[in-house]
Design goal:
By secondary structure, the protein is of the alpha/beta class. It is built from 15 helices and 18 strands. It has 2 domains: 207 residues, YjeF N-terminal domain (Rossmann fold, 3-Layer(aba) Sandwich), CATH 3.40.50; 227 residues, 3-Layer(aba) Sandwich (UDP-N-acetylmuramoyl-L-alanine:D-glutamate ligase), CATH 3.40.1190.20.
């Protein structure tokens, strides 16, 4: 079992193509099924201990993986039972069913077990489970002490993370061959539990990867405040939002942070305060300029945004500023650019997203010629060249005022410190989520900004 952080993410079609490419080399579907079943059995053996295991098998190849796993667990001396929703109908699944010499119980009447393995339906499902199957699955998961899904929880849409019907929450999901978008997109990700990948020997090259912990190297011994990066934050109508972003940039590792605009009582002494004028914005020492948190949407805000866009500094645009610009105008800018919209800001800038979140973010990145951090319960970071990074493990306690400002400041610090645009966005997203995880429940954004230091360490 391999953690999916940093690994490729494949759609259902891409996974089918990867398997077809391997089969074209002479490796059979049966061999791939044996590999998958062996990996499932090994994982279940580790996780289940001495407890009885109940494996639910569907009619397709996902069910075939389940039969192989059951046969291997039985051969290893483990207590295992099998229940099926229907007879297998693919040649590989039929062959796998023949390996299981025990009874196959009806799914709708089978008794629960302490450990449940759902191998009913995996990648590529397009419709809800029938009511009998759905009710049985929900009943058995509810009675299990440990519920494990094979590839995906049955009833989940692979590419957009939608729930096709009632889908119970699993403790763990074993992704076969590669992670899928539904492992990282909500609401499906919340049903997957902990996701681990089981290699099955297929090629998994992809422009999309799951978010991984960045390499946060300490500054070199000859570093000084400007080599660590200078972040300038433009203050707008709501001073507190800009200050939160500035504090976040400081705690995320920027060597020098200044707030451009009127002074704010109570701001950290290390935060440099300066008038926001043409001279300040033209300062060549600035390595990342952040505008948008609390900016406002009036004529004054538009003028400030125009001035920021006219600079050649790497730019992070957040919050209100995303309501005051068009993708076409952004695409005209040649300097590095990162946009950090939540769903409402995304719709204001790009229109209501169509299709899944990954596709929407990638399309937006092309239109704006910018890195787009489409944030929310699941965050997708997309680049104009098609690369994307998916983050799906952030705590729901981030749903509090000001946390978006903290994220923008963290990303600005990463950009100022010399990270490439996509890497800077990914590093800021990871740091933001890790700080929130360490804080636990019911924190406020001020605490989140401070916690970035510990998360980076």
């Amino acid at each position: 079992m391999i953690p999916i952080a940093g690994t490729p993410v494949l759609t259902a079609a891409e996974m089918r193509a990867a398997e077809a490419a391997v089969i074209a080399t002479g490796i059979s579907v049966d061999t791939l099924m044996q590999r998958a079943g062996a990996g499932i059995a090994d994982a279940v053996r580790r996780l289940a201990g001495v407890n009885e295991v109940l494996i639910l098998c569907g009619p397709g190849n996902n069910g075939g993986d389940g039969y192989v796993a059951a046969a291997r667990l039985h051969a290893a001396g483990r207590m295992v039972r099998v229940a099926a929703s229907a007879e297998p109908h693919t040649p590989a699944a039929i062959a796998a069913r023949a390996l299981w010499t025990g009874a196959v119980e009806p799914l709708t009447t089978v008794s629960p077990a302490p450990v449940l393995v759902d191998a009913l339906f995996g990648t590529g499902l397009s419709r809800a489970l029938d009511s009998d199957t759905s009710d049985a699955l929900g009943r058995l998961v509810a009675k299990a002490n440990l519920a494990i899904a094979v590839d995906l929880p049955s009833g989940v849409s692979t590419d957009d993370g939608a729930l096709l019907g009632d889908v119970p929450a699993f403790h763990a999901t074993l992704a076969l061959g590669a992670a899928k978008p539904a492992h990282l997109l909500q609401p499906a990700a919340a049903r997957c539990g902990v996701v681990r990948m089981i290699p099955i020997g297929v090629g998994t090259e992809s422009a999309v990867h799951a978010l991984a912990r960045p390499d946060f190297a300490a500054p070199p011994m000859d570093a000084h405040k400007f080599t660590r990066g200078m972040v300038a934050v433009v203050r707008g109508r709501m001073a507190g939002a800009a200050q939160l972003a500035a504090r976040a940039a400081m705690h995320a590792g920027a060597g020098y942070v200044e707030l451009l605009g009127a002074t704010i009582p109570g701001a950290p002494h290390a935060l440099v305060r300066r008038r926001c004028d043409a001279e300040a914005l033209a300062d060549p020492r600035i390595t990342a300029l952040l505008i948008g948190p609390g900016l406002g949407r009036n004529d004054e805000a538009r003028a400030l945004l125009d001035q920021a866009l006219a600079t050649d500094h790497p730019l992070v645009i957040d919050g209100d500023a995303l309501h005051l610009i068009s993708p076409e105008r952004l695409a005209e800018r040649n300097a590095p650019l990162i946009l950090t919209p939540h769903a409402g800001e995304f719709a204001a800038l790009f229109g209501a997203p169509t299709g899944n979140k990954l596709a929407a973010a990638r399309d937006a990145a092309v239109r704006a010629q910018a890195i787009v951090v489409f944030k929310g319960p699941a965050t997708v970071i997309a680049a104009p060249d098609g690369q994307a990074i998916m983050a799906g493990e952030a705590t729901s306690w981030l749903s509090t005022a000001g946390t978006g400002d903290v994220l923008a400041g963290a990303i600005a610090a990463m950009l100022a410190g010399g990270h490439a645009q996509l890497d800077a966005a990914a590093a800021g997203v990871w740091l933001h989520a890790e700080a929130a995880r360490r804080l636990g429940p019911a924190f406020i954004a001020d605490e989140l900004a401070t916690a970035l230091s510990g998360a980076r360490a």
